[in-house]
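Task 17 of the worksheet. Students: predict the tertiary structure of the chain below and write it out as structure tokens. Keep your answer in the requested format; marks are given for formatting as well as content.
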Amino acid sequence: MSGMRVLAAMSGGVDSAVAAARAADAGHEVTGVHLALSRSPQSHRTGARGCCTLEDARDARRAADVIGIPFYVWDMAERFHADVVADFVAEYARGRTPNPCLRCNEKIKFAAVLDRAVALGFDAVCTGHHARLAGGRLYRSPDPAKDQSYVLAVLTREQLGRAMFPLGDSTKAQVRAEAAARGLAVAAKPDSHDVCFIPDGDTRAFLAAALGPAPGPIVDTGGAEVGRHDGAYGFTIGQRRGLRVATPARDGRPRYVLDIEPASGTVTVGPAESLDVTVIDADRPVWTGCPAPAGPRECLVQLRAHGEAHPATVAPAGAGLVRVALAGPARGVARGQAAVFYDGDAVLGSATIAAAS
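Model answer:
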């Protein structure tokens, strides 16, 4: 894979800077590109949150100068808003809990960017994701705390075939040390956290501004109203804090969000054990690490970013669905999140959770 024309997506952080430097060291002809994703970047706060501030664009440009590669900024704000931000809002309005990082990887970095890169004559897109590619298959990073294979598992075999993850064998500590040794000013820059387009981290307020007030009842498992809310979109399955329940549970135990019914705006709360799920139906399956299973296949399944991997069996369920039978109960399983299937550290595929019981 030496001597390719590589487009390095540079967010302004330490990971993408070191990834671009490694790609250049490997003999590839590397061009850096920073994706301007915000419609109004000057309004996004600076610091650790997000990856589309003006400060981040400057950091990416300085890193490209140190590495000695050409650098451009691509304005993808409208595409990002349509495919990621609007999707995020619409999913919450449907009572689901989306993962915007996964959607950005799918729709922006490895669809819009990769399509444009190929049209311009590039052979591959390089990113600073912590995941490993080997033999066309995607594997977990050796740094469990930073592993990003979960948010990459939606990519197709063709997309993975044009992807480069130069940090695949490295831990975050090794990446930071290498950045310092290379003289990259972003070596000590904090990691970004939360959702990049919600700079203050207040998802509920962001959704309220986008969707407006939609009051409704909070009910217990018997259907009795125990509180009111301003919008069911402000809740997610498994949530415990911020429920604004006026009536305490009879047994005094904490209550959790068990279900969100968007049509009526009803949020159901109850005890932790009511969150237990053993069967999941998921749609839009993507199989990159194996052929689509014709029957039951044993695997591990991860149900949220940085969640644990559960032993399970996955099988086709007709109409583009797969059914996941868990060996033991899992909690906090939310519609709209990805179910990612693993064989050890190797990604087999992914699907989007549609129902759980």
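Marker's comment: Helices lie at 14-25, 54-67, 77-93, 100-119, 149-152, 157-161, 172-181, 203-211. The longest strand covers residues 277-287.
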